Amino acid sequence: MKIFKLFIDENIKTWKKFSTKLAIFLIFLALIAALGMAKITQNLDAKNNGQTVYYEGNWKEDVEAEIKSYKEQLNNSSLSEFEKKQIENEIIIDEIRIQKNINSYSTNWKNTVLGNMSLEIDEDLLKLVINDDFKGYINHEKEQAKKKLTNKEISQAEYDDNISILDLREKYQIGNENTDSESISAKSYILGKITNEKRSIRTGINYQNNKVLTAEEKRKYEDDIKINMYKLENNILDDEGYSTDTNYRKLFESIAPSFVMTLTAIFAIIIAGGTISTEVSTGTIKFWALTPNKRWKILTAKILSLLFYLIIITLIMSILSIILANAFFDTSGYEYLFLKEGNVQKIGNTLFTIEYYFVKLIPVIIFAILALMFSTITRNTSLSIGLSLATYMGNSIVMVIIDSYIKKDWVKLIPFNNLNIAEKVFPNFTSMLSMGFDTQITTSLSFALTVLAVCTVLMLVTMYDSFNKRDII
Questions:
Q1: Are the C-beta atoms of residues 45 and 37 closer than 8 Å to each other?
Q2: What is the pTM of this model?
Q3: How far does Cα 11 stand from its chain's mean position?
Q4: Side-chain-side CA neighbours of residue 164 (13 Å)
Q5: Max CA distance (Å), the chain
Q6: How far apart are CA 82 and CA 79, in angstroms?
Q7: Cα–chain-centroid distance for residue 186?
Q8: 189-208 per-position pLDDT tens digit
């Protein structure tokens, strides 16, 4: 119970300090800054979208001017027959665009088909465009894939993948102009990911870096395909910013944790860096040393107090984040999708937000303990805070250099290569900002936690040993 009493006393001291209240206020301002960035982006996009609509509204005038230009070019007697035929094809295509109201700036299937006919007009495809026969277009593409398979231009596996993608296009009307443009953009993005991931699994080459696909990457792509299929099935189209109609609440929920936890880390380092050294320099540590309390209990109480402070701050900010998101945005929040036993599961917005904040807290705790260790060893506040902040701010740059030039397995054991815990716990969540823990080294969650746990134990052992043995009177 003595540790508990010491813990209470430490908390009373901590929460009474003006610096503690100032830290909470500034961390809250970081949350407001993230909200402001999301709202400013929303307003700017609204203005830009308005200008885009106005520009696209004049597409017919542009096409008519293009037709006029092509007809003038036909009067040039120096043109070859091939050039004349190509210009005539362009005129036919542009006239169909106007007659059938096919926006030349759109990305729907009809505009894509017309864009590929400048050299030669395909009458069958042209008829499908004129009749707005999307299903007929899908069947045509399937027939072309079948011919390639028969002629051995593609393998059976590639043919199967092509057919599955075409089935998805037909089922979800991906690329069909009858669907609203925002959904087309989002669905096309998801379908593109599925296509690339299927190709990577089939060929064994990672489409993102052109390297041999590892077993772990293959499993991730297989899971991603199932999750993306779930998104198409349930019309979840704005999680990663690829939709024209961006969900700005999800933008806020993406950047707010990084804003808040970065500032929390800085203040945690400042508080931890002066915890022991300040009391030594002012002599207040002598009061504790002269009491019946053992030194290890005093230090344990300080560590627990620091952890309690960080947990409370994180809990408050995560709840405030949810409140602000509900107050300032009328869209739904992010729900995390993941695969469990082959089935797609999801975590609700409130629970995910709180969990994500606390996962982001893990590296903050590591740096806070580092600062506390420096404070205990050096007994110099400026030195301990300076070293800790420099390590926090510069670790990503140093690791990029090391990871780029040292291709050894032992590099994975460096703690700074294992700080991106949030990406490992929630691999399907895409954050627009990071806390500077991105590395070129890929490690598993269990490996990263093991390395950080060992590192934490070593810091605690060093800290307790120094605090127990050195003279503080």
A1: no
A2: 0.81
A3: 36
A4: 16
A5: 107
A6: 8
A7: 16
A8: 899 999 999 999 999 999 88
